């Protein structure tokens, strides 16, 4: 009888621990993690984290479908949403050695224009970012970079 009770107790512990481990499963790579983009400030903060601090969570939901990036330099460049997302995902975990300042130039209920300045040791990158409200979330729609 004692053996039967021990067997049932062991089986119950194994079942409970199995269910507990299954409930705490990690998010798979194919699942998208949600990022709070409910305000323009949250979206701008996340954009800065993605572009300068190597954050990669929620990169796909941060950019508007018609996003484009322009780089003003001696040879001007344009980058699509897909190219920028691919590049940022490759930089996952890479924190840039710079000081970042943000300044909101214009803001309304449906859009925001901000200036993000990243000061490196030898140069400064200025990024004019336009964010737009799409439904209940804010997304980055354009980015224009210049370097000094």
In short:
The chain is an alpha+beta fold and 148 residues long. It has helices spanning 2-23, 40-52, 59-62, 81-90; strands spanning 63-72, 77-80, 99-107, 111-119, 124-134, 137-147.
Description of the structure:
The protein is an alpha+beta fold and 148 residues long. Helix content is 33%, strand content 36%. It is built from 4 helices and 6 strands. It has a 6-stranded mixed sheet with strand order 2-1-6-5-4-3.
Low-confidence stretches: 8-13, 20-25, 27-31
Question: Could you spell the SSE succession in H and E letters?
Answer: HHHEEHEEEE
Strand adjacency order, main sheet: 2-1-6-5-4-3
What gyration radius follows from the Cα positions, in whole Å? 23 Å
Q: How many helices in DSSP terms? A: 4
The portion of residues assigned to helices is 25-40%
Structural class: alpha+beta
Strand content: 35-45%
Q: Count the strands? A: 6
CA distance, first residue to last residue? 82 Å
Q: Overall pLDDT, averaged?
A: 79
Largest sheet: 6 strands, mixed
Helix and strand arrangement:
Blueprint: H1 2-23, H2 40-52, H3 59-62, E1 63-72, E2 77-80, H4 81-90, E3 99-107, E4 111-119, E5 124-134, E6 137-147
Parallel strand pairs: 1-6
Antiparallel strand pairs: 1-2, 3-4, 4-5, 5-6
Task: Quickly list its features.
6 strands; alpha+beta; 36% strand; 148 residues
């Amino acid at each position: 009888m004692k053996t039967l009770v021990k067997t049932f107790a062991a089986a119950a512990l194994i079942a409970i621990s199995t269910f507990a481990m299954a409930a705490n499963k990690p998010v798979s790579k194919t699942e998208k993690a949600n990022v709070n983009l409910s305000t323009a400030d949250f979206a701008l903060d996340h954009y800065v984290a993605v572009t300068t601090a190597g954050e990669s969570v929620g990169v796909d939901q941060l950019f508007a479908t018609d996003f484009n990036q322009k780089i003003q330099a001696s040879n001007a460049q344009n980058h699509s949403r897909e190219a920028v997302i691919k590049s940022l995902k490759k930089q996952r975990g890479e924190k840039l050695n710079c000081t970042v300042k943000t300044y909101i130039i214009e803001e309304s209920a449906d859009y925001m224009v901000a200036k993000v300045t990243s000061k490196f040791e030898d140069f400064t990158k200025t990024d004019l970012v336009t964010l737009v409200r799409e439904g209940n979330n804010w997304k980055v729609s354009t980015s224009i970079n210049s370097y000094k």
